[in-house]
Write a structure and sequence with these properties.
Length: 517
């Protein structure tokens, strides 16, 4: 019999999905409506009065009058807020918390979050989750078990009495009460910052509960999968010896001590991915969890900007009624005064830097992300990566997007189940070249074919790479084996919300790697 919870949420999902379809059918109208709601509500802030929000009547005036902003340009306003949270420097509302960022591009930031900003972020995430519920009749069954959410501490410090914490912890506290009851663990595990202790705490829940969804910090979801498969079987068997869960562990364990997590989690339907490009890991995730659907959402400390709305459409759909979007064409990004275009002018197949305006006090804000528009009906994005993370050893100007797409292609060509990777640009004896440091789940991967497929895709998508490889200005790509996950090393050395590094020139990554063969 369908549970009352499932019945109620199914009704809500249908309502929300119909609403989203209506919004996606008129994205420009809804995005512009949101902009003028923001302008009206924030016109009396210090920022709004400085740029005369009250007299802005159209999009052209908005773009002409309000400058592009970055975290650096916002610092004077942020300092005023740190000194006096009620000063209304950027928003009429006072912040209830500061979100500490992952520090991907440098020192972690402390970003004020208001009730209205938090509400819009939750709406975006909830709309995406409701779309998942509507994608298959079996999906509402995730409400019949435990949704395992990976989070970080809600309170690390305070600034003038206002708590500082990570987004998953801070916003999790304000999550819908119904869903809070379905999600585990609680803050006592969110607050663990030691990677090993945190993963073991999650592993015990994952081995003893009816797990129906994995969500939250995706890098931690991947870390738990790696550890459950490779490391935790014997330990869990010993921990749960003599309990009702022992037989479940034994059934899922191979003779070598590794775990079949699909056997362990037969009810798992949702892998809710956020924060990283999951394409390179899809082969591994899909083969490890064949009955689980990867469902993506794109957001950050500034808000929730896109989510997957359809099971058969690759990519995520921009959510236009919560954010006003503008874009900088890729070739303009490094110019001091780049050309900026509205959503209506983006073209399919082109790459852009995203510019955001939200109710949370971000006005024409460059958050540093690049993305590719893969469709305009509805507006769909893929390959989200950081701006400026480019390696240029001999004129090839290799970007994170180039690397991620080439790695994904190589995995598809060779059926490689990639668990972790980083591509390192190096110079050996005067010859520049790239080395792929990779951790595969399956040992039978043809390394030569993998490297060939990787380079073949780069030659097709990056003409400069093709030229420098074929002229010998760039040496052949090599591949070495990661003995341990580099991503988990990043987490241990920085913090729990750190992200993988797909492309770098840091040779330290290679120090613990070994040659295949």
């Amino acid at each position: 019999m369908m549970s009352i919870m499932r019945r109620l949420v199914s009704v809500l999902a249908r309502k929300k999905f119909k609403e989203m379809e209506r919004i996606l059918s008129a994205p420009i109208e809804h995005s512009e409506k949101k902009l003028f709601e923001i302008i009206e509500s924030q016109k009396n802030t210090q920022f709004g009065m400085e740029y005369d929000f009250q007299s802005i009547c159209n999009i052209d005036e908005w773009m002409e009058r309000v400058p592009l902003s970055t975290h650096q340009s916002r610092l004077p306003y942020l300092q005023r807020i740190y000194d006096d949270p009620d000063c209304q420097a950027l928003t009429m509302e006072s912040p209830f918390a500061y979100l500490q960022t992952s520090g991907t591009t440098g020192k972690p930031k402390h970003l004020p979050v208001t009730a209205s900003g938090s509400k819009d972020t939750s709406k975006g995430s909830m709309n995406t989750l409701m779309a998942f519920m509507m994608a298959d009749n079996e999906h509402p069954k995730i409400l019949d078990g435990t949704m395992l959410i990976f989070g970080a501490p809600a309170e690390l410090d305070t600034i003038n009495g206002i708590p500082v914490g990570y987004a998953t912890g801070v916003l999790g506290r304000r999550q819908n009460k119904i869903f809070q009851r379905l999600m585990k663990p609680g803050e006592e595990i969110f607050n663990i910052t030691d990677m090993d202790d945190k993963m073991r705490a999650y592993a015990k829940i994952a081995a003893t509960e009816k797990i129906t969804a994995l969500q939250g910090i995706t890098t931690l979801s991947l870390a738990l999968m790696r550890r459950m498969q490779e490391l935790y079987g014997p330990w869990l068997l010993e921990e749960l010896k003599g309990t009702k869960h022992e037989s479940k562990i034994r059934r899922a364990m191979y003779s070598d001590g590794k775990l079949d997590v699909a056997e362990l989690w037969p009810d798992l339907k949702l892998f809710y991915a956020m924060g990283i490009d999951t394409d390179p890991y899809r082969e591994w995730i899909s083969k490890t969890l064949p009955d689980t659907m990867i469902w993506e959402v794109y957001g950050g400390s500034e808000g929730c900007f896109a989510g997957q709305m359809y099971p058969d459409k690759k990519g995520m759909q921009l959510i236009p009624h919560l954010t006003y979007f503008e874009f900088i064409p890729e070739k303009e990004c490094e110019k001091p005064n780049p050309k900026v275009i509205p959503l209506s002018e983006v073209k399919k197949g082109f790459r852009y830097e995203i510019v955001l305006t939200t109710i949370g006090g971000y006005y024409r804000y460059r958050n540093g992300d690049m993305l590719t528009i893969t469709d305009t009906q509805p507006y769909t994005i893929r390959s989200v990566g950081r701006k400026g993370r480019v390696v240029n050893l001999s004129g090839e100007k290799l970007s994170e997007a180039h690397v991620s797409n080439a790695i994904t292609y190589a995995c598809s060509r060779t059926s490689a189940e990639l668990m972790d990777y980083s591509v390192v640009g190096v110079v050996n004896n005067g010859l520049p070249q790239y080395t792929i440091a990779a951790m595969f789940r399956n040992s039978e991967v043809d390394i030569t074919e993998f490297v060939f497929a990787f380079e073949d895709h780069l030659k097709q998508t990056n003409e400069e790479f093709r030229v420098v490889r074929e002229t010998g200005a760039l040496g052949p790509t090599s591949l070495v084996r990661m003995v341990k996950s580099h991503f988990e090393d990043i987490v241990k050395s920085s913090h729990i919300q750190a992200k993988p590094i797909p492309l770098t020139t840091d040779r330290k990554i290679l120090e613990s790697c070994t040659i295949y063969g």
